[in-house]
């Protein structure tokens, strides 16, 4: 996969981003409990390492740490763009609206949320504004109207969705098209631990519609890196696609074998490259420079068809994913 452009946004970025959920959400990710090594300084190292590796896409959400991930990203943006304003044009800053069912005035709520996100990020516009999941009681037409109004107001360049099924993607794509706005992306859980978006045809449909699939939890919340095993499980339950670690070990073993054929590339590099070679854009979280450098190692090379086949054969469909049960979609 070449560099990627999100329809509606003129910035071209590498087909790999960085997810910032763990940056601000210490409650979910255990910072200050098991993970005492993550600080805003290590996060800043991850930021700089990612920028130096040519990464331009950063994903966040209003609900991550109740806005804390956006605040941290905002401080990092200020430190970099403050020194060199021209860098802003090379970045795609993506955040999300939480469309809670009680937000019946969805246009008003979305505008208010987006303005609050912009305040935390210290920006006058984001590049991609996403609906976090299909949980609103309002119609696709109402959601599309709210998104189109945000574009018209210049508060975002492109708009996307997350955790949308094929049918939901088609519906919002059509409603946005009526308003002259392209649907730029659908952010879904996609990895060697959850191949489901491929087997259901969601990836293919996104490609037909010109919608960029963004893959979240692409290294299985750390479990595809090889550092966690059945005998050394993750310190805190990693809730998405929570397969028994014995099954995860089998996937990591194949990723390790494939990486050995590429000068010893790590399981994370292979897991992320597999996603890129399938036409999706992974956004792994990285909490420090080492993780960011390892993840960025997925850029600039490719798997061959036999390697992709070997990984396909061992990949798990992920039907027992927490995310899948929660959203019941995608
Ligand atoms: N739209 C949605 O509903 C949704 C849902 C979930 C996530 N997301 C987005 O997707 C992003 C990524 O997903 P995620 O954070 O759930 O999972 P992930 O990217 O698969 O895993 C990230 C975690 O793995 C560990 N890690 C990362 N790189 C590593 C490396 N190279 N070596 C060793 N360990 C490494 C770190 O945790 P430890 O060091 O603690 O192991 C890190 O926090 C999020 O930040 C967020 O932006 C979106």
Count of domains: 1
Helix amount, in percent? 40-55%
Global shape: globular
The assigned structural class equals alpha/beta
Any idea what the CATH superfamily is called? NADP-dependent oxidoreductase domain
DSSP strand (E) fraction? 5-15%
Unreliably modeled segments = none
Alpha carbon gap, first and last residue: 22 Å
Figure out the total of helices. Answer: 14
The total beta strand count reads: 10
The H-and-E topology, N to C, reads as EEEHHHEHEHEHEHEHHEHHEHHH
Major β-sheet annotation: 8 strands, parallel
- The CATH topology label is TIM Barrel
Bound molecules: NADP nicotinamide-adenine-dinucleotide phosphate
Instruction: List the strand order in the largest sheet.
Output: 3-4-5-6-7-8-9-10
CATH architecture: Alpha-Beta Barrel
The overall pLDDT, averaged over residues, is 93
Q: Oligomer, anyone?
A: single chain
Please tag this protein with its features.
single chain; 330 residues; alpha/beta; TIM Barrel; eight-stranded parallel beta sheet; two-stranded antiparallel ribbon; 14 helices; 10 strands; 43% helix; globular; binds NADP nicotinamide-adenine-dinucleotide phosphate
Describe this structure in words.
The longest helix has 16 residues, at about 70-85. The chain has a single domain, classed as NADP-dependent oxidoreductase domain (TIM Barrel, Alpha-Beta Barrel). The radius of gyration is 19 Å and the shape is globular. The protein has about 325 residues and is α/β, with parallel strands linked by helices. Helix 3 (about 40-50) packs parallel to helix 12, helix 7 runs parallel beside helix 9 (about 200-210) and helix 10 runs antiparallel to helix 13. The protein is built from 14 helices and ten strands. The strands form two sheets. The protein has an eight-stranded parallel beta sheet, with helices on one face. Strands 1-2 form a two-stranded antiparallel ribbon. Bound molecules: NADP nicotinamide-adenine-dinucleotide phosphate.
């Amino acid at each position: 996969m070449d560099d990627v452009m999100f329809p509606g946004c003129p910035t071209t970025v590498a087909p790999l981003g960085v997810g910032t959920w763990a940056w601000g959400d210490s409650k979910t990710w255990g910072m200050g409990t098991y993970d005492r090594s993550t600080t805003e300084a290590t996060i800043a190292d991850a930021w700089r390492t990612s920028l130096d590796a040519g990464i331009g896409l950063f994903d966040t959400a209003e609900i991550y740490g109740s806005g804390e991930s956006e605040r941290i990203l905002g401080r990092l943006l200020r430190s970099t763009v403050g020194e060199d304003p021209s860098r802003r044009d090379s970045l795609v800053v993506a955040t999300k609206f939480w469309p809670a069912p009680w937000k019946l005035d969805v246009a008003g709520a979305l505008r208010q949320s987006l303005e609050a996100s912009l305040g935390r990020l210290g920006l006058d516009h984001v590049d991609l504004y996403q609906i976090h999941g299909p949980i609103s009681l309002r119609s696709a037409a109402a959601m599309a109207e709210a998104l189109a109004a945000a574009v018209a107001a210049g508060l975002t360049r492109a708009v996307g969705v997350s955790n949308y099924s094929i049918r939901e993607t088609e519906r919002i794509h059509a409603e946005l098209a009526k308003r002259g706005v392209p649907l730029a992306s659908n952010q879904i859980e996609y990895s060697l631990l959850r191949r489901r978006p491929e087997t259901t045809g969601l990836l293919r449909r996104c490609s037909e519609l010109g919608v960029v699939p963004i893959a979240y939890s692409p290294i299985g919340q750390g479990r595809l890196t090889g550092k966690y095993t059945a005998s050394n499980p993750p310190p805190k339950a990693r809730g998405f696609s929570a397969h028994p670690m014995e099954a995860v070990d089998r996937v990591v073993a194949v990723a390790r074998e494939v990486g050995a054929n590429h000068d010893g590339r790590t399981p994370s590099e292979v897991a992320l490259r597999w996603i890129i070679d399938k036409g999706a854009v992974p956004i792994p979280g990285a909490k420090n420079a080492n993780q960011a450098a390892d993840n960025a190692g997925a850029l600039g090379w490719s798997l061959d068809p036999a390697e992709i086949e070997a990984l396909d054969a061992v990949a798990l469909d992920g039907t027992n994913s927490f995310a899948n049960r929660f959203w019941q979609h995608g």
